Amino acid sequence: MRVIDMALSKNIVAALTKQINAEFFSSYLYLSMASQFDVMNLKGFSNWMKVQAQEEITHAMKFFGYLSDRGSKVELLSIDRPKTRWKDPLEVFKGAYDHEVKVTDMINKIVTLALKEGDHTTNTFLQWFVNEQIEEEASTDGVVQKLKLIKSDSSGLFMIDQELAQRVFVPATANQK
Ligand SMILES: [Fe+2]
Ligand SMILES: [Fe+2]
């Protein structure tokens, strides 16, 4: 137990704990999407989702690390079961994009709460996520737009699959908790 007085408010702890859960759920959802692509034999799309699933775990761990650094005990919540079936690649990526829009909204709401409580430390911590969500929305929407462009052209789909096969997981650097 820490004795230093730097405790986060109950509301902030609850919101950050919920966010850890949302990030793990994101990882689960993207893993489920990866499996959908595997059975569609779209290995590049699947690779992209597997990398994204790994990235989501690093997001969860950043929140975990922050709570821990602030002297909070992390009480993990249960993770919901993600959707398991999508009809085509476009439906999958639309789902991913919609999900990221929801995550952005969650992050924004915690920022609003932190500002309301005058918790500038948490606000500063959250700015990394505010920026990250720009990338998350742009990358998922980018694939949605490409899929819309090719419609059901199989050579176009093959090209996108090749492109998404290139994505590699880059672990966060040491100074990013
Ligand atoms: Fe995330
Ligand atoms: Fe990202």
Question: Topology of this structure?
Answer:
Elements: H1 10-39, H2 43-69, H3 89-116, H4 120-150, H5 154-164
Helix pairs in contact: 1-2, 1-3, 2-5, 3-4, 4-5
Structure description:
With 177 residues, the chain is mainly alpha-helical. It has a single domain (10-164), classed as Ferritin. The chain has five helices and no strands. It has helices at residues 10-39, 43-69, 89-116, 120-150, 154-164. The mean pLDDT is 94. Bound molecules: fe (ii) ion (2 copies).
Number of helices: 5
User: From the 3D coordinates, which CATH architecture would you assign?
Assistant: Up-down Bundle
Overall average pLDDT: 94
Distance between the termini: 21 Å
The bound ligands are:
fe (ii) ion
Order of SSEs: HHHHH
Strand content: under 5%
CATH topology: Ferritin
Unreliable stretches (pLDDT < 50, length at least 5) are none
Q: How many extended strands?
A: 0
Mind describing the biggest β-sheet? none
Global structural class: mainly alpha
Rounded to an integer, what's the Rg over CA atoms? 18 Å
Percent of residues in helical segments? over 70%
Per CATH, the superfamily is Ferritin, core subunit, four-helix bundle
- Overall 3D shape: elongated
CATH class: Mainly Alpha
Tally of discrete structural domains: 1
